[in-house]
Amino acid sequence: MTVAVHVQLDPGRVYRTSELRQWSANPTRLSARLEQAGQIRRLGHGLLYAPYRGRFGEVPPSEEALLSTFLEGTPYLITGPSRWNALGLGSTALFAHPLVYNTQRTGYFLLGGRGFTLRRVGFPVPAPAEWFVVDLLRNAASVGMDPQELVMHLRASVDRFDPKVLTAMAARFGRRAEQAWVRLALKEA
Questions:
Q1: Tell me: the pLDDT tens digits for 62-118?
Q2: What is the secondary structure of 65-77 as a DSSP string?
C-alpha cells in the first residue's frame, strides 16, 4: 500500500535529508516515503534529488548543485585537467573524476553515481588563470608531465598571463618548488 505524500519539492534541486525536517519530525522516514512515491532519488551521503523531467527524460543534477549542497554552501573550486588543458601549456591530461578544492572535506566521494576527489586546501575566489598555472605545476606528476617541460611552455606563452599575478599566486598558494619554477619561467621569458 502506497501512502500519498504531499510535499512540495523544487524539481531539479538537491536536498539534504535534514532539510525534510520542515515537513516531518522524522526526515529519514519521510525521505523513504518520498522515494517510494517517486518524488525523490537518493544520491548518497544524505543527499536527495527532486527529479526534473526534460524533453529526453529525467535530467541528472548538475555538478554545482551536488557540490554546493554536499559542502553546505561553503566555497569550492573545480579544478583538474579540464582547466589545466585550457591553459595551453601542453597538458592533455584526463582524470576519471573532477578534482574539487574546498574548505570542509578531503577524500573520494560518490554522489549521484559520479565520483569527486575533494581536497581541503586553500584557493582564491575567484581563481584567476595564473592560479591554475600554479595548480598545474603542483600537480604535474599526477598528470604525467615534467615540470621542466611545463616551465618551457610557460616561458613561451608567458605573455598570456600577468607576471605580477602569477608571482603572487605562486607565493600565496605554491610550495617552494612551484615558486622556483614560476621565477625561472619569468626570468627566462
A1: 999 999 999 999 999 999 888 888 888 877 766 677 899 999 999 999 998 899 999
A2: HHHHHHTTT--EE
Nearest CA to 52 out of 64, 62, 44 is that of 62
Q: Distance (Å, rounded) from C-alpha 108 to C-alpha 105?
A: 9
Please state, in angstroms and rounded to a whole number, the distance separating the CA atoms of residues 171 and 163. 12
Residues paired with 104 in a beta bridge: none
User: SS3 breakdown of the chain: % helix, strand, coil, rounded to 5?
Assistant: 40, 20, 40
Rg (CA), the chain: 21
Grid cell of 160 as nine digits: 598570456
Q: What is the pLDDT of residues 129-176, one digit of tens each?
A: 999 999 999 988 887 888 888 888 888 888 899 999 999 999 999 999
Q: Rounded to whole angstroms, what are the CA distances from 160 to 46, 124, 154, 189?
A: 43, 20, 9, 12
